[in-house]
Amino acid sequence: MLIPTKSEMRAYEVDGYFVREGFLSPSEVEDFRGNARRKLEAESAAGEVMEKGDKSGNKTLLKMWNTAGDDKFGMLARDERMVRMSEALLGEDIYLYSHKMTMKQPREGGAWEWHQDFAYWYNNGCLSPDMLSIFISLDASTKANGCLQVLKGSHALGRIDHVREDGQTNVNMEYLAEAEKRFEHVYVEMAPGDALVFHGNLLHRSDANNSDSYRWGYICSYNTVANAPFKRTRDYGNYEELRTVPAGSFMSAAE
Ligand SMILES: O=C(O)CCC(=O)C(=O)O
């Protein structure tokens, strides 16, 4: 099913997120994850991958691409399942805002503090919060290895002020404390291949990875064409035509 079901649409509106189980098949996960581990661990060893610290000094590896090319990463970002899903939820013509891999290595990956993605995107010149992300879990994502956590329904608050601390852009603590009283705190545990689709204003965070397992997530964010940044502040996020490819094309793409 390329587009969201009625209940997924409703969950997105009311809760600000939903999980589509088995978004990628087991063989697709194996192919994509195998390639990602080989390439990105080599890039990391060569010092070519960003290391995002947390306040305890743990580091999450972060790879971000400025454009979606013809390699496996670019092809999955342009996969029609990702695009049709996002288009249906945003209700307008869209483009790929960014795609990235967040890599929590065993016993090493750090925490992400509570934030809304739109807090970053607003600073980058996007006026409207009609933006979303699809987080594809490449490993089993559990409480122990730092799965995503959300405040269910918190996207309804709109954008909250954020502050820059420890290299992260985090939500104002006073407002967070109030939000935590009103919205259910959910640990979104997922199996490899599951996808979490979530609104740009949904408050989310994740703990450090204190387990022996990997917790890698591939995250694609989409924006409406009309909401492209009005100023250029970054090398990613700017409008570029989205060249959609048939489902699963990344399987035969170059590494
Ligand atoms: O990978 C994670 O645990 C969190 C990533 C995240 O929140 C983000 O990229 O905005």
Summarize the structure.
The chain has 255 residues and is α+β, with helices and mostly antiparallel strands. The protein has helices spanning 6-14, 26-45, 72-77, 80-90, 117-123, 173-182; strands at residues 17-20, 50-53, 59-65, 94-104, 112-115, 131-137, 148-151, 162-165, 168-171, 185-188, 195-199, 204-206, 215-224.
What does this molecule look like?
The longest helix is centred in the first third of the chain and has 20 residues, at 26-45. The protein has one domain: Jelly Rolls (Sandwich), CATH 2.60.120. The protein has helices spanning 6-14, 26-45, 72-77, 80-90, 117-123, 173-182; strands at residues 17-20, 50-53, 59-65, 94-104, 112-115, 131-137, 148-151, 162-165, 168-171, 185-188, 195-199, 204-206, 215-224. It has 6 helices and 13 strands. The protein is of the alpha+beta class. The two termini are 27 Å apart. Strands 1-11-6-13-4-3-2 form a 7-stranded antiparallel beta sheet. A 4-stranded antiparallel beta sheet has the order 5-12-7-10. The structure holds 2-oxoglutaric acid (AKG). Residues 102, 112, 117, 146, 148, 204, 206, 217, 219 line the site of 2-oxoglutaric acid.
